[in-house]
């Protein structure tokens, strides 16, 4: 066998490969701004079902390390997120943040998107976020003083001080806020009521970055085979009962928090209290079922549009009825949270206390009838709107409503008359387009002799839909009367809306509290139905009998759990095994469980400790990319170049079958080069491969732990070998002497003559490999060095341990283990 080159050669090969991929895949597209459709691939990959109007303004300070300011204004949810990111020349963090936000429009300075000389950042946004419409706005709009004025005018009074502290020195983010707000005013002709807009600064360091390709290949937000399938991590965890809770869960899964004390620990405490107090948990779930999407309703209320007319007033009445229903539901959640003791649940309960919601509800009930509520049926909702305002406030309004009642009675009497005159069972129906219409069964009705008085006839399978001229006239009179009621309600409603806009800030906080408790109760739902445990957060990854969360639910008791262990001493895990032995499932489980742990959910295991991870990367799929004119190997190298450029010691990477898309020699060389580079980063790497020689060479490197997915080879009927997968991770490399690939081919049914020929070739190659093995003494020396390095790492970790009482016993066991392993090496 050809001798493998040394580490220096591998590093040189890696550098050449990275340089080639970087230069061959950065060709820019035309840079003329254009309108783009909102049907790109990114939202579906991220599992987003709702569409939001998000206007994003970006500005950059060009330099060796570019600084990018971002202001994202969500017009659907009434919130603004400011960020200022110190990025690299590839703008990785900024592009990732924009991809997760799925903006409908991205606004640049005119100089950045010049057709003659566009900026690199602008070209990257055009190429990597094609679903967003790209625009530019005047340079004068990007003003720091204007941005601060918007904060002082639009943010709730209690939030202005903390926001100013957070954005101090964030010049570019503040300028972007000014540009975004002026762009919205100029393009959409809308503004926000004072002190009603949620504005927050979000540091990029406080959240984990999960690469988009990792999200897709790990099936975090969406199943790869079917977009509608719930067999993904989001589908597994999403037992939320409100749209607000589902949004918070999605946002947390896209960007899990990295602050243990501020977020993760408090969620663990709240979830543990929920699952141990079953009565409180069920009461919370019951209370959550009553809530509409109040967050969107409040946003529509605070947005000031220059529109008038019946439709605008109807919409405002709808919003008030929804807010009234929302406020009437909050006390139920407050009572459900009464037994809570954990800090997070107590804080949520305090935000939902009656002192916050009852005064606002009483103000609404001064104008709106107490028994009027929001209804989903078009007719019911129309009637609720007509009688929403209390009687006695306006005499003309009361007269119009009396006319409305009488017209409804006349229409129902007319319906009975039609049934009697034409001897049909005409039932009266209603929709927003036709208003009242008749549904008549076709049984006994001659379709050729339908009375001429029936107009607008729509034949269906078992009935017809129709109207009469008299009914159309009555509908018109009813419509005129309804419009009069709405317009006479306008003056009263307008004053109420103005009052609600001044009180909207605490209601938004209540919405956020409900969304958070909904997400935690969703975790509680799956924790109580599955055998999940509370993780610990330490510097070590240690999982006992952990299970792949999605397959665990699908396979129930058939799934084989596995152990995981990763420290500074063992940070590169080289996983070998037979085909179909479960290598991919084994390494993917780590990333999915890490995400679950960092969003505050319990995990499927007997015992679990996790470190805080800041980046997750994955290189899994073997698909080519026709649009980018890249083969599967080209895609693989491009993604690995991206990982190598951005990975650090706070990252976790999942690498599956690297180098299998090219020749065995080149694939082995590239896999070795990249493996050495990944080991040097200090990141937690889970590397599945069929290159057994790669595992054997890397076994001598500090930080490497070889694992394999075990299997049994037995002799079946007729003396034919049979391969049985155990799906259990075991130390060491897979025993390739059993030729598991050939055994699998035999099991599938390949002709015996081909199998015999393959075994002959494999045995010949094995004999040649054994003849080229290293001498026994040099082999022992390598293992002695590795044993000493492992001892050094263990002693260093023991020195940093806070548990000094257990230290003597641990050192004694360490000594005994060292002597035993050294004896084994000498006896080889």
TrEMBL record:
Single GO cellular component term: nucleus
Any one GO molecular-function label of the UniProt entry: mismatched DNA binding
Gene3D superfamilies: 1.10.1420.10, MutS, connector domain (3.30.420.110), P-loop containing nucleotide triphosphate hydrolases (3.40.50.300)
SMART domains: MUTSac, MUTSd
Record Pfam families: MutS_II, MutS_III, MutS_IV, MutS_V
Compositionally biased residues, Low complexity: 24-34
Region spans: Disordered: 24-45
PROSITE patterns attached to this UniProt entry: DNA_MISMATCH_REPAIR_2
Entry keywords, A to Z: ATP-binding, DNA-binding, Meiosis, Nucleotide-binding
Family statement drawn from the similarity comment of this UniProt entry: Belongs to the DNA mismatch repair MutS family. MSH3 subfamily.
Binding partners and assembly: Heterodimer consisting of MSH2-MSH3 (MutS beta). Forms a ternary complex with MutL alpha (MLH1-PMS1).
Protein name stated in the entry: DNA mismatch repair protein MSH3
Native source organism of the sequence: Hypocrea virens (strain Gv29-8 / FGSC 10586)
């Amino acid at each position: 066998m050809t001798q493998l080159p040394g580490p220096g050669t591998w590093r040189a090969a890696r550098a050449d490969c990275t340089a080639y991929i970087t230069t061959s895949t950065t060709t820019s597209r035309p840079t003329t701004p254009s309108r783009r459709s909102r049907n790109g691939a990114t939202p579906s990959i991220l599992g987003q079902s709702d569409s939001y109007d998000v206007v994003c303004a970006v500005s950059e300070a060009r330099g060796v390390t570019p600084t990018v300011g971002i202001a994202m204004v969500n017009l659907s949810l009434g919130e603004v997120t400011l960020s200022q990111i110190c990025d690299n020349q590839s703008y990785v963090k900024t592009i990732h943040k924009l991809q997760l936000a799925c903006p409908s429009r991205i606004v640049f300075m005119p100089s950045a998107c010049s057709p003659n000389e566009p900026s690199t950042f602008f070209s990257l946004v055009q190429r990597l976020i094609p679903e967003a419409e790209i625009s530019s706005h005047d340079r004068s709009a990007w003003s720091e003083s204007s941005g601060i004025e918007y904060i002082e005018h639009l943010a709730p009074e209690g939030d202005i001080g903390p926001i100013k502290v957070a954005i101090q020195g964030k010049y570019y983010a503040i300028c972007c806020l000014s540009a975004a707000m002026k762009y919205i005013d100029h393009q959409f002709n809308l503004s926000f009521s004072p002190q009603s807009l949620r504005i927050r600064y979000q540091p990029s360091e406080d959240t984990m970055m999960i690469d988009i390709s990792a999200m897709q290949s790990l099936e975090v937000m969406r199943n790869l085979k079917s977009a509608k399938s719930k067999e993904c991590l989001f589908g597994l965890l999403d037992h939320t009962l409100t749209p607000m809770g589902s949004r918070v869960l999605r946002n947390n899964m896209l960007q899990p928090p990295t602050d243990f004390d501020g977020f993760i620990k408090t969620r663990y405490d709240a979830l543990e209290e929920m699952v141990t107090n079953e009565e409180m948990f069920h009461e919370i779930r019951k209370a959550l079922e009553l809530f509409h999407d109040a967050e969107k309703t409040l946003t529509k209320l605070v947005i000031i549009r220059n529109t008038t007319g019946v439709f605008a007033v109807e919409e405002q009445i709808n919003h008030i009825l929804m807010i009234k229903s929302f406020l009437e539901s909050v006390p139920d959640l407050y009572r459900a949270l009464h037994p809570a003791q954990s800090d997070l649940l107590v804080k949520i309960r305090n935000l939902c206390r009656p002192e916050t919601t009852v005064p606002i509800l009483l103000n609404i009930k001064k104008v709106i009838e107490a028994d009027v509520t929001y209804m989903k049926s078009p007719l019911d909702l129309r009637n609720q709107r007509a009688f929403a305002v209390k009687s006695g406030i306006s005499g003309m309004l009361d007269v119009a409503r009396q006319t409305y009642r009488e017209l409804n009675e006349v229409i129902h009497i007319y319906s009975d008359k039609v049934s009697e005159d034409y001897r049909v069972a005409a039932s009266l129906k209603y929709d927003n387009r036709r208003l009242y219409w008749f549904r008549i069964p076709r049984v006994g009705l001659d379709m050729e002799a339908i009375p001429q008085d029936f107009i607008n006839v729509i034949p269906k399978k078992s009935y017809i839909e129709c109207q009469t001229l008299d009914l159309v006239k009555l509908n018109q009179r009813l419509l005129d009367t309804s419009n009069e009621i709405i317009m006479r309600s306008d003056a009263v409603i307008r004053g109420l809306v103005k009052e609600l806009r001044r009180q909207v800030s605490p209601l938004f906080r209540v919405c956020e509290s409900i969304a958070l408790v909904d997400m935690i109760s969703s975790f509680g739902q799956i924790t109580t139905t599955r055998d999940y445990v509370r993780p610990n957060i330490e510097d070590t990854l240690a999982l006992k009998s952990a299970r792949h969360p999605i397959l665990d639910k699908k396979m129930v008791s058939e799934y084989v759990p596995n152990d995981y262990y990763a420290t500074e001493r063992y940070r590169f895990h080289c996983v070998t095994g037979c085909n179909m032995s479960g290598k991919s499932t084994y390494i993917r489980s780590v990333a999915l469980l890490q995400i679950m742990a960092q969003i505050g959910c319990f995990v499927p295991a007997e015992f679990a400790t996790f470190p805080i991870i800041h980046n997750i990367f994955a290189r899994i799929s073997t698909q080519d990319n026709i649009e980018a004119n890249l083969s599967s190997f080209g895609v693989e190298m491009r993604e690995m170049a991206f990982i190598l450029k951005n990975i650090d010691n706070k990252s976790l990477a999942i690498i599956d079958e690297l180098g299998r898309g090219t020749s065995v020699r080149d694939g082995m060389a590239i896999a070795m080069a990249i493996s050495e580079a990944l080991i040097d980063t200090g990141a937690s790497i889970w590397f599945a491969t069929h290159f057994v020689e790669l595992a054997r060479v890397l076994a001598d490197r500090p930080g490497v732990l070889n694992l394999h997915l075990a299997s049994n080879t037995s002799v079946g009927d007729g003396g034919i070998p049979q391969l049985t997968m155990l799906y259990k991770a075991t130390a060491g490399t897979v025993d390739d002497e059993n030729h598991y690939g050939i055994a699998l081919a035999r099991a599938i049914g390949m002709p015996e003559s081909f199998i015999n020929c393959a075994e002959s070739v494999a045995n010949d190659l094995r004999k040649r490999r054994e003849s080229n093995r290293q001498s026994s003494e040099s082999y022992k020396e390598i293992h002695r060095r590795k044993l000493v390095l492992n001892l050094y790492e263990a002693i260093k970790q023991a020195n940093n341990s806070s548990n000094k009482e257990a230290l003597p016993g641990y050192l004694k066991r360490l000594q005994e283990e060292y002597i035993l392993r050294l004896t084994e090496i000498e006896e080889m």
